[in-house]
Design brief:
single chain; two-stranded antiparallel ribbon; Methane Monooxygenase Hydroxylase, Chain G, domain 1; about 300 residues; 10 helices; flat; 3 domains; alpha+beta; about 55% helix; Translation Initiation Factor IF3; four-stranded mixed β-sheet
């Protein structure tokens, strides 16, 4: 809710504006505290330092079942610092520990009883956002290109190693989403669009993982993928590289080219599906279609940030 404040002139060079009392009480702002002031064109954004105002939540884990991990990860991404779990079965502590797993970096269980435990963020500081994001892109490019090479050379055993990269991607994308929820983008109006892109970069790694797992589990079969399908997979990998380059250097020509190639590759994949003679081609083409569309979908939020 917008409120109006009058500017108070102090001497010749200093101007003051009072903080809304309700906001100050809600955020525990006291005399002598430091607050963050960010200039954004004709707006000034005032915020408290979230590191000094940790968020704590309580959640009943008794009936979450298979959604326990999702809930824990969601709270972590939101930026929560402390989670108190209550439950009716003490054995759930082990499942809570498993839910925190490899993605909830820096959280440890610091207190537990018969019907509760408390997990708190105790170690690890935020890295800079941009280097992590670039590592996500480079990891995805590596996954896509390595898969194409393995399928071409019929080196299906190596696909299991590529699957492990998806776990790394999960850690990176989870860290980035926590960062955005805690600190936001350097340009606040871009936070939502950036969050969408990071969220979907995590899902892109899932597509690569599913493709790897499919072929790895059938590595002892007479697996054959047609040259046409492999060529299309390589083309889509290049499309991802095109978007990566566009992301770091805006180019309207490249932007338009990505849109044109997306249409071309979608049509080619659909035609190839109709003509596919093996299940291996059909499964690969399915993932090619999904990856192609995901890459194209990045353009929407990207334009929100760049135009």
């Amino acid at each position: 809710m917008a409120v109006k404040r009058k500017v108070i002139q102090i001497a010749d060079s200093t101007q003051l504006v009072s903080l809304p009392r309700k906001w100050a009480k809600l955020n525990n702002v006291k005399k002598g505290d430091e607050i963050e002031v960010e200039e954004n064109n004709n707006r000034i954004i005032i915020s408290v330092n979230k590191e000094s105002n940790p968020e704590r939540v309580e959640i009943d884990a008794s009936n979450l079942g298979i959604m326990l991990t999702r809930c824990v990860h969601a709270l972590y991404k939101r930026g929560v610092d402390e989670i108190r779990f209550t439950f009716d079965n003490p054995e759930l502590i082990k499942k809570i520990q498993e839910a925190m797993g490899k993605e909830v970096v820096g959280f440890e269980i610091i207190d537990q009883g018969k019907n509760h435990c408390v997990a708190k963020h105790v170690t690890g500081q935020f890295e800079e956002f941009d280097p992590i994001l670039r590592r996500i892109f480079l990891l995805l490019l590596s996954m896509g290109e390595d898969i194409a090479t393995c399928l071409k050379k019929k080196d299906y055993d190596h696909l299991q190693n590529i699957v492990f990269l998806e776990e790394t991607n999960n850690r990176f994308t989870t860290a980035c989403r926590r960062y955005l929820n805690r600190r936001g983008h350097t340009s606040p109006s871009k936070t939502g669009a950036m969050y969408y892109i990071v969220e979907d970069l995590e899902k892109l790694a899932d597509e690569y993982k599913y493709l790897c797992t499919y072929f790895y589990e059938r590595r002892k079969e007479s697996v054959t993928v047609s040259e046409k399908t492999l060529e299309l997979l390589s083309n889509v990998n290049q499309l991802l590289r095109d978007f990566y380059e566009l992301f770091y250097k805006f180019d309207m020509v490249k932007l338009t080219q990505i849109a044109k190639l997306r249409k071309k590759y979608i049509e080619a994949a659909l035609t190839a599906l109709e003509e596919a003679e093996t299940k291996y081609d059909r499964v690969t083409l399915h993932h090619i279609l999904t990856v192609t569309q995901k890459i194209f979908n990045y353009l929407g939020p990207y334009l929100v940030m760049e135009l």
